[in-house]
Amino acid sequence: MRIRATMRLFLPLFFSLLSLTSISASPLKINGSTTVNLPVAEAAEILRAEQKLDIQVDTQGGSAGGISMLGDGLVQMGMSSKPVSPEDRLKYPQCDFHPVHIGEDAVALIVSRDVWENGIRALSKSQIKDIYEGRVKNWKDLGGTKPQRIAFFNKEPGRGTWEVFVHWLYGSPKAAPQVSFPEVGGNEETRSKVASTPGALSQLSASWADGKSVFALALLGEDGTPISPETQNIASHRYPLSRPLFVLTNGEPSGEAKTMIDFLLSDRGQALVQKHGYLPLKALHP
Q: Is 156 in the same domain as 254?
C-alpha cells in the first residue's frame, strides 16, 4: 500500500517533468523573408553553437509566408521585409503581431550586365510604369544604345520586395494592375534569372546587386536627378524604395524568441545586419 501511495505521488511529478522536457525540446521555428533570413540564419548558427538552442529557419513564401505562418501558429517567429498590414491583422485576429525593427534595406531595380552595357543606368517612375504595364518593350525606347528586348521578371505578389515596389509605383498593392510577366521568388532565384537572361530586369533587395552579374539602376527624381540605392540615400530615405526589416512574434517576445531578438539587437547581431549589406539601426539614428 505504501508503494502504491508513493507511486501516486511520484507519477504526476514524473509526467509534469516529462512535459516540461518536451516543451523545452521543441525547436524555435522561424520563417519568412529571404532578405531578413541572411542575418537571422547566421544568428541562429551562433546561438546553436554558444547556447545549444534548437532553431529552424526557413523562407517558405517570403514575407507573406512568414506573416501567415506566424498568424496560423505554425512558427514562433516570422521574418518580413514589409510592415504587417491592417488586412493581415484582420485575417489573423488570434495573433497579436509584434514587429521588431532590426535594420533597413532598399528595393532596387536590377538589370543584367548586357543592359547595363547598353547604357541603361537610371529610370524614371513613369518609364518603369510603362514597362510594368507593357507599353514599352525595348530598351532602345528608354535610351539604350541599341535595340534590345526587355525581359521583365516580376516578384511574386505578396513578397515584401514586390509590395514595396508597387506601393511606390501605384500608392497601394491593391491599385497595381494584374500583369502576366514570369514570376520569381527568393533573392537568389531573382539574381540568377536576371544574370542569365539577356535584356533582363527585376526587383531585388539592393544588397544582392553585386555590380558584376546584376546591376542596380538609379531612380530619377522629379527634377531628373538620379538617386542610387546607396547607404546615405537609404538612411535618409531620399531613395524612395527604402524599407524596414522586421522579425515578428505573437505578442511580446519570450523564451528562445526573446533570446534571438535580443541577440539581433545587440552589437554582435547588428554587425551581422551590416555584414549582409543592410543598414544597422544606429545608421538610421546616428
A: no
Higher per-residue confidence, 232 vs 199: 199
For 66-83, write each residue's pLDDT tens digit. 999 999 999 999 999 999
**Domain encompassing residue 180:** 106-235
Q: What's this model's pTM, rounded to 2 decimal places?
A: 0.82
Residues 189 and 259 reside in one and the same domain: no
CATH number at residue 265: 3.40.190.10
Is pLDDT of 257 > 90? yes
- 259 shares its domain with 191: no
Let me know whether 157 and 256 are in one domain: no
End-of-domain residue from the set 217, 235, 253: 235
Show the 3-state SS of the chain. CHHHHHHHHHHHHHHHHHHHHHHHHCCEEEEECHHHHHHHHHHHHHHHHHHCCCEEEECCCHHHHHHHHHHCCCCCEEEECCCCCHHHHHHCCCCCEEEEEEEEEEEEEEEEHHHHHCCCCEECHHHHHHHHCCCCCEHHHHCCCCCCECEEEEECCCCHHHHHHHHHHHCCHHHCCCCCCCEECCHHHHHHHHHHCCCEEEEEEHHHCCCCCEEECEEECCCCCEECCCHHHHHCCCCCCEEEEEEEEECCCCHHHHHHHHHHHCHHHHHHHHHCCCECHHHHCC
* Domains identified in the chain, total number: 2
Q: Considering the domain boundaries, does residue 34 fall inside one?
A: yes
User: For all residues of the chain together, what is the average pLDDT?
Assistant: 91
- What pLDDT is recorded for position 217? 98
pLDDT digits (tens, 9 = 90+) for 15-62: 444 444 434 468 999 999 999 999 999 999 999 999 999 999 999 999
